[in-house]
Design goal:
With 337 residues, the chain is an alpha/beta fold. The protein contains twelve helices and 13 strands. The protein folds into two domains: 145 residues, Rossmann fold (3-Layer(aba) Sandwich), CATH 3.40.50; 141 residues, no CATH class. The chain has a five-stranded parallel β-sheet, sandwiched between helices. The chain is globular and about 60 Å long. It starts with 5 loop residues before the first strand and ends with a helix.
Length: 337
């Protein structure tokens, strides 16, 4: 029985933090002793431009993949997706320590997002390198995933046997181009841009109205996308504060919810912003407006406050109860600002 080869990619931390580097090196050293794994190291995933060798390598991977990074798994998965590296979400068992609030709130109601397009039949597993201090838990989880992938591949082979004609095997994956470690680890420049979680995005287009820097656009299928990512203002997460369903992430932001942490208590459009953003709904909107105005002024443009692109979430919600942001918008409308 042929052994399934699983690609494991470790995305390094930005900078050269000695503790992080030591963990990365110990994980890679342990994995090199494991059979059936193809292990590679790339720079920080979020910083990779379209021409970086690390990005080209990721694009060349066709089978199941495990990504270890210093990003929340949700953010890492959707960074890959926006870069054209697609696959089905692979469930992992390596979890961060439980939060008491999470236990009380239970699992959030699944969002009704528009979903990703063109997802191939393979699994992508994303592990957060902040979830353990030593290499052992990561190696154990990768072994478990490898066994799971092997079993799934065997089931596929039984269901769809490989066609053989004149001694040639058809249907196999093309050989991956070879990339040396020096090519893969070329240092990229730091980047800053929003990442859309299409499992949560409802295609409401509020981001286009709110962002005044031309970051967002619409594709040929009338779906929202990050069209001009380098137009985004470094360090500004304003659009993520007002986007429904927490569908937008800035993976390098200091606040966990904006950086892509697992979503807590979310029901419909009612978001516990006190827990997520350190203030109530009104504070989050005010902060987003202030951040946007700051970047406009830095560009030599005029601040616009709440007069442009403020979300009108209640317009399509029928008779559903309005949340705090809806009530705030009603108050702003009444002031005729």
């Amino acid at each position: 029985m042929a052994r399934h080869h699983l690609t494991v990619v470790l995305s390094q931390a930005q900078g050269k933090h000695p503790v992080k580097r030591a963990l990365e090196e110990s994980i890679v050293a342990a994995l090199l002793m494991e059979s059936g794994l193809e292990v590679s190291v790339i720079p920080h995933l979020y910083d990779l431009g379209p021409d970086h060798t690390g990005r080209l390598f990721l694009e060349s991977v066709r089978g199941d993949m495990i990504l270890l990074s210093w990003l929340f798994p949700r953010a890492a998965y959707w960074v890959l997706d926006r870069d054209g590296i697609k696959g089905r979400w692979g469930e992992t068992q390596l979890k961060p320590p439980a939060d008491d609030d999470d236990e009380e709130n239970g699992e959030p109601e699944p969002p009704k997002g528009i979903g990703a397009l063109g997802v191939p039949d393979r699994q992508i597993y994303c592990l957060d390198l902040r979830d353990a201090n030593g290499h052992e838990p990561f190696v154990a989880e990768i072994r478990r995933i490898a066994a799971e992938c092997q079993a799934r591949q065997e089931e596929k082979r039984k269901a769809q046997p490989t066609m053989v004609q004149l001694g040639l095997s058809f249907g196999g994956a093309a050989a991956k181009p070879a990339f040396g470690p020096e090519q893969l680890l070329q240092a990229p420049g730091r980047r800053w841009y929003p990442v859309i979680d299409y499992s949560r995005c409802t295609n409401c287009m509020e981001c286009i109205d709110f962002c005044l820097f031309g970051v967002y656009g619409v594709d040929g299928q009338e779906r929202i996308l990050v069209e001009n990512q380098d137009n985004c203002k470094k360090g500004c997460p304003a659009c993520s504060r007002v986007w429904p369903e927490q569908a937008i992430m800035f993976p390098d932001y200091k606040t966990a919810a904006i950086a892509g942490a697992a979503v807590g208590a979310v029901t419909g459009l009612k978001i516990d912003l006190t827990r997520l953003f350190g203030g109530d709904t009104k504070d989050a909107l005010s902060q987003a407006v202030a951040e946007r105005d700051r970047e406009l002024v830095a560009d030599g443009r005029q601040a616009v406050g709440v007069t442009v692109g403020i979300p009108k979430r209640q317009t399509s919600r029928g008779e559903e109860p309005k949340d705090d942001l809806d009530r705030l918008m009603d108050e702003l409308d009444a002031l005729e600002l």
